[in-house]
Amino acid sequence: DIIVDETHQHLHAVFKLLLYTNVPKVIALSATLITNDPFIDKIHHLMFPKEIRFDKIKMDKYIKVYSIGYQFRNYDPRKIRTTEFGSNSYSHMAFEKSIMRKQNILDNYLELISYTVKIGYIDHYIQGDKLAIYAASIAMCDEIVKYLKAIYPQYDIRKYTEADPYENVIKPDIRVTTVLSAGTAIDIPNLRTVIMTNNILSPVSNLQSLGRLRNLPDRDVKYYYLYCDQIKKQVDFHHRRCELYQDRVASIKEFRSPLMV
Q1: How high is the pLDDT of residue 32?
Q2: Could you say which DSSP state residue 58 is in?
Q3: Which of 196, 201, 257, 258 has the fewest CB atoms within 10 Å, i.e. is most exposed?
Q4: In a 3-state reduction of DSSP, which class is residue 2?
């Protein structure tokens, strides 16, 4: 028999495993067997037809989701890029690069993140509470860590990306990381708040980052995400997130940031 955890992560490898092994029983585990890609969806149904899926467990809806829309003071689409050169696909990496080119815009963006940290984590902090902040690039993770350390020196704040020790994602009060580094299969004890600064289309990435949160006794568990309502793609992603989360969370509330970038 074979048990495969996080089946969605390496679908091609799992497909070959099932194709070339002759075992009587296979248990494939995944909380996010979902995709926007029609071909991958076809493979999902080929490998795991709906009639053989076990999905009868009632979902525990304990996460409170908060979307925070914001605006740039002087938005210029020529200066705030959302695609890489030669591509038409939205890229949050390109978005972050544009922000980091102008120090005043970067400072305002970091202040927006710090504001979200304050209302979502600091204001209701109890000893042992943990916070995870997701950014797209390692460079932006570095900027966020440096900024928050200056404001909140009393908290243990660390970056966790590909070259950092595993303790950086488990031990600190606040860890700043990426979806690739800590978006899947990492359980952070007492994680009470997640702040997602990325705008991501992938339903798997959106659900996996949401799923880092666990139900904590007598504590509100919160998931914040930021989007710019002057950028059509980010607004589209916001609406898709609301649809994706609707039946999976305790509540969804939309807010406008009082700060401008």
Answers
A1: 67
A2: P
A3: 258
A4: strand
